[in-house]
């Protein structure tokens, strides 16, 4: 496959909206994991505020839990990085470059592809099914 080409996938999950106001993040990650466990090839396109999920500003762990100071939980960026490492040829994660810059999250983890909004349709065409999750 040519550099920058969009790999064919079975499902594309388009993620929109604020990442921590609803169960959106959990739903996207669980759905992606379930599809991968069934052998599917999956791509995630994060748009709007969802581009913050893989921002380097998230670090490796969530901030301290005031209810349990000893608990350490991975950040969403760390969870996505782990998933991408576990499924290197079947999971792809992209962010809308305009949205991540507009939302103050231009620096993304290295494993995530940054795309211009004009390339969105290439990703749609490369997928058998597309599911939009969340709202902007």
Shape: globular
Arithmetic mean of pLDDT = 90
Cα distance, first to last residue? 33 Å
Summing up helix and strand content along with how strands pair, one would put the structural category as alpha/beta
Contiguous uncertain segments of 5+ residues: none
SS summary, helix count: 4
Order of helices and strands: EHEHEHEHE
Q: Provide the gyration radius in Å.
A: 15 Å
Q: In what range is the share of β-strand residues?
A: 15-25%
Percent of residues in helices comes to: 25-40%
Question: Largest sheet at a glance?
Answer: 5 strands, parallel
Give the beta-strand count. 5
> How would you write the strand order of the largest sheet?
4-3-2-1-5
How would you describe this structure to a colleague?
With 136 residues, the protein is α/β, with parallel strands linked by helices. The chain has four helices and five strands; from the N terminus they run βαβαβαβαβ. Strands 4-3-2-1-5 form a five-stranded parallel beta sheet. The chain starts with 8 loop residues before the first strand and ends with a strand. 32% of the residues are buried. The model has no long low-confidence stretch (mean pLDDT 90).
